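Assemble and predict.
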Amino acid sequence: MRTHFAEVLARESACLAGVTDGAKLASWRRRVVEELMTPLSPYEFALRHTGDVPERADFLDRWRELIAETVDRLLRSGTTGDTDSSSGRTRRADVDAQKTAMLILAALHGGSTLSRIAKDPWPLNAALDLALAPFTAAEDDSPARTGTSSLIGNIKP
Amino acid sequence: MTTADSHNGRRLTARGAKTRTRIVAAATDLMYVKGVRATTLDDVLAASGVSKSQLYHHFDGKDALVRAVIDNVGERVIERERDALGHVSTIRGLRRWRDTLVQSNALRHGAYGCALGSLASEVSDHDALARQALSRLFTEWQGLLAGVLRRLQDSGALPPEASADQLATGLMAALQGGYMLAQTAHDVTPMATAIDMALAHIESLSER
């Protein structure tokens, strides 16, 4: 397997294994966003779409599997955003770890492409806000949420 | 009859415009199927049947040709999406939009992905003009999705406090990432799953 694929998998394997609650998920996310926004980092390189290499398929399958294990662990430990009963009868039972992992991987892939052409982490953060919503609804501290809109919200007339 | 050449400002004769269109059409097809990097100017010459001097008359080099391909693909995609999304005002309409994209990608087992997204993932960092053109096109596409979400808010199907722009961008990322995963897997399922999950989240906001 190509070096950047192997390096990302090694780091993700170690980092995702330590994600046991919402706060750790948030720091995983911040680190991955930083990696993906760094030109020529192994992460940025691994998610660049450069031809149809079989290793890419294997790499993406394994990363998705690592994310799915993490999602599953968080679901079983009860880490979802919906701790407040008024905000919903959601979702823990409804959340499918494999499908959620697919959305998270798609968000990383598509979000980093949009962020790269925009030279701005905002699209990637918006993508992850949506993909990680089942786990962050109660925390609401994600970068794309704490932008201009919350500043405007704080302004008193 | 003359037509302005958008890249060098020269006026083109009708025959010149036709030659230019032929070059851009051949380059668009090649770059979609083979990728931007793997497409050489010699490939474009062979596929379009124009001479080298004709090609260089219209384009300084590959970067200029890539920008013309971005304009061409962008125009097509935005027109298609404006037709598809311009009047959508329900979640059901959004799902029909999803169905069309997934079904047309399934015909090719996800082999080629989104024409605009493929250009975005391949465009080189050194070409700021190409990057900015792509960024503008995606902003326009996301604007169409945000328009749908605002119409959902107007009808009460989506709560007013949800950020339409942020959700539209998240949905676009899921769509583009889905295309890329489907292309790698030679299977449209990852794309279908990614959009379905994103749409399910948007729908769940109205249930809270």
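The mean pLDDT of chain A is 82.
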